[in-house]
Design brief:
Layout lengths: L3 E4 L2 E3 L5 E7 L6 E9 L6 E7 L4 E3 L7 E6 L4 E6 L8 E9 L2 E4 L3 E5 L2
């Protein structure tokens, strides 16, 4: 059974930083890609950042230069380091896993950027 456990969300002031973590029960070496998506109230879920097994990373234009996706193979964990946070970054952030059997989602973690 595929499991994704997210952590690291919370309330932060504009300009602040947060790091999200997503730990999986699946070996990192069997993963095609892992990514972070977000969904704000009344909006569609959108890609934030994605990292392939070959090390290629893609980012939404709105977060380029502020967010960094990375992974720790030994811990089967992917991270999203978020800096210079803005109120418009407020959303539920979801971890996504792409493996041979399909796509899997975490439960989501709330990120709120507000003064």
């Amino acid at each position: 059974q595929v499991q994704l456990v997210e952590s690291g969300g919370g309330l932060v002031q504009p300009g602040g930083s947060l790091r999200l973590s997503c730990a999986t029960s699946v070996s990192i070496y069997t993963i095609y890609a892992m990514g972070w998506y977000r969904q704000a109230p009344g909006k569609q879920r959108e890609l934030v950042a994605r990292l392939t097994n070959r090390g290629r990373s893609d980012y939404a234009d709105s977060v380029k230069g502020r967010f960094t996706i990375s992974r720790d193979n030994a811990k089967n964990t992917v991270y999203l380091q978020m800096t210079s946070l803005k109120p418009e970054d407020t959303a539920v952030y979801y971890c996504n896993l792409e493996i041979i059997t399909g796509n899997y989602w975490g439960q989501g973690t709330q990120v709120t950027v507000s003064s």
